[in-house]
Design a protein that fits this description.
Elements (H helix, E strand, L loop, with lengths): L1 H4 L4 E5 L9 E3 L12 E6 L2 E6 L4 H9 L2 E6 L18 E7 L5 H17 L5 E4 L5 E6 L6 H18 L4 E2 L4 H4 L3 E4 L9 E2 L15 E2 L1 H5 L13 H8 L14 H9 L1
Parallel strand pairs: 9-10
Antiparallel strand pairs: 1-2, 1-5, 3-4, 5-11, 6-8, 6-10, 7-8, 7-12
Helix pairs in contact: 4-8
Length: 264
């Protein structure tokens, strides 16, 4: 999990009384943290936010000890060798497929439609279960484009998908406006937006995990959004390893794909 958290500002979804009670989200860590915990200062309107960073096992354990069940991360990282542009330039573009109800087949079909469009646009994508109702499709980026460019591309790609499959897909955020359609949520690509980190546990009965899977598994219907759980992950990793291990080394430019999407 650490390689996928490395350098990304973290928002902790905390449940001090367990998932049966209302929890809360915590972005800012300004008090009550150990001196060794690394943080990143992020500008916001009228101030700054001090997000924690998961840099090693100790920091990950500290977050778990705060009753943080789910860790949500940015699609960008602090400056480093593989991402010199830093927080203002995402290294991921995220498509969150969210069905109106608990419908794994609809979520799976929509996810494959996103993959096929990205292929058409010349982008290689990876997939993981959300641990909730849908799947996350992720495009590794080279960091040359900023948030505005990536968000605009993602929104345009989502609009093109909805135009092609209006009976199945929608960009309507309100559930009342979706009907039975699957939401193609591209809002994870804006400044300070987050998505559930790879291998994070979700706050649902059975402790489902948002875990990478293969496109072949999705095509064959072998995985559903909550197929993997805290109890099964050790066996899963022993069998397939980290399917996203090469993600950081395979960044692509979104700019050519954006031009292709405009022509379509």
């Amino acid at each position: 999990m650490l390689s996928h958290l490395q350098g990304r500002p973290v928002t902790m979804e905390r449940y001090p009384s367990g998932i049966g009670r209302k929890g809360f989200w915590q972005k800012d860590v300004s008090r009550g943290f150990p001196e060794w915990l690394q943080r990143v200062e992020v500008p916001k309107k009228d101030g700054v936010v001090h997000h924690p960073l998961a840099t090693d096992t100790r920091s990950l354990l500290w977050m778990a000890n705060q009753n943080a069940v789910t860790l949500h991360v940015w699609p960008s990282r602090v400056p480093g060798p593989l991402h010199p542009e830093g927080l203002f330039h995402p290294d991921l573009c995220v498509f969150d497929l969210d069905p109106a109800g608990d419908d794994p087949d609809a979520a799976r079909a929509a996810t494959l439609q996103v993959r096929d469009l990205l292929d058409e646009l010349g982008l290689v994508s990876l997939v993981k279960t959300s641990g909730s109702k849908g799947f996350h499709v992720v495009v590794p980026l080279d960091g040359t484009a900023d948030f505005d460019e990536v968000a605009a591309f993602a929104h345009r790609a989502g609009a093109l998908l909805v135009k092609r499959h209006p009976e199945r897909l929608t960009q309507e955020f309100l559930k009342a406006d979706r009907g039975s359609r699957v939401l193609v949520d591209t809002g994870r690509n804006g400044w300070s937006a987050t998505f559930a980190a790879a291998y994070t546990v979700r706050a649902r009965p059975g402790a489902p995990v948002s875990a990478p899977c293969s496109w072949a598994e999705v095509e064959r219907g072998e995985v559903a959004p909550r197929s993997f759980t805290l109890r099964s992950m050790a066996e899963r990793l022993e069998a397939v390893g980290d399917l996203w291990a090469e993600l950081a080394a395979n960044g692509q430019s979104v700019r050519e794909a954006a031009e292709r999407s405009k022509r379509l």
